Structure of cholesterol 7-desaturase:
Amino acid sequence: MESSNLSSLVKVLAVIGISLAAGLVLDVRDPSDTLLGGGYPELWRRAGLAGAPARAAACILAGVSLLALGWLYRLLFAPLELLRTPDEVGYITEDGRSRAQAANEVRRRRKTGELPPVYPNGWYRVLDSHMLERGDVKSVTILGEQVAVFRGQDGTAYVVDAYCPHLGANLAVGGRVVGGCIECPFHGWQFRGEDGKCVRIPYAEKVPEFAKVRCWPSCERNGLVLVWFHCDGAEPSWTIPDQEEISRGEWVYRGRTEHFINAHIEEIPENAADIAHLAHLHTPGIVSGVDLRYTNSKTWEFVRHDWKVEWKPEPEPNKHCSQMLVKHALTVFGRHWPLLDVDVVARQVGPGVVFLHFDHSFLGRGVIMHCVTPVEPLLQCVSHTIFYQSGIPPLVPKFILRAECIQFERDVMIWNNKKYISKPMLVKEDSAIQKHRRWFSQFYSENSPRLRFQHDTLDF
């Protein structure tokens, strides 16, 4: 509510500013008319150009002021929206190649290794709730399938297979919401969101009992729309916990980031147990950027991050959960800044959702929901959505999210170029990695889908 009122106030001020600028432009007088004896030449006056330079200057000043106001509003109040394309992060572009060319070359030549099943059983984010208004229909690719996500007029979100069983039209492309149903754009068949059953065919006297579209088990928690996947069609065996501060409106949405990772899904959460990589990859300050060729530059070594991490699985009845306890400290010019020490509890729930809880006496409290959703066997959509205390200035959670994004993109460069090794060469200090793999294996079943074709040699 507070954010909405502030946004309305800024819009009102912008309208007033535009009105004043327009009045100034229409009534502005050039100083030369009064300060100079002769003013403008008679030819200028006859052509209506008297005062034109002043009006142009006023227009430029008004435009710059509005741009500055908009930039200031986005910086201080608007949520951070940072959405990366699949080719944008994690690849090295050289010799005049575009990002897309570099990414395609890496994907074509990289060895994949002996992979686990590609789609673990569990809950996965489809999209954020605020992206789906009443009556909206969205087309989403998830777990190698096309689905239609729509919100009924009663506010409930539904997820169904995208293709109409009649003649294969895509329900998410031109389909519309009618009550709690989605209507096919091709022939007007209407499918109920709660069970996928067809309830109306405009030109038929009777709707066949077998006319239905697959309905995915779904839920809406913490500002996310999620679906359940199980290779054998089993019902959900656990749920995503509700973050009460979000439900009560105490923590509000402050932004999200989105990345696409070319790797197996298991490699992303495995980082939580790879304690050694933190000291090597994430110690350089965020000011040194994300390109691993330059993060260790001496120019930026005056800023360092120090990490202490512990990973452990949870016992029954929460064996599908694990925790990473992180203690972060910042040193600048060798001096420790205790005010910026942050303790983070990262709780993973199943293969696709992680809650990163922040609790700081000065910076406040909040959560980043880190969600990994398989798009294709070796393409993961990773989102970070942040909710934070409403009383904390938005600039604080936006900075936290931006810092998390920088550190995360360093990992992206590793994931996008690495090979999965099923039997890694580990030392004693890497023992948590094997523990994590044993823990993660519970999300695979005998029939879990595997990548059918693997290229372990150069593809010419």
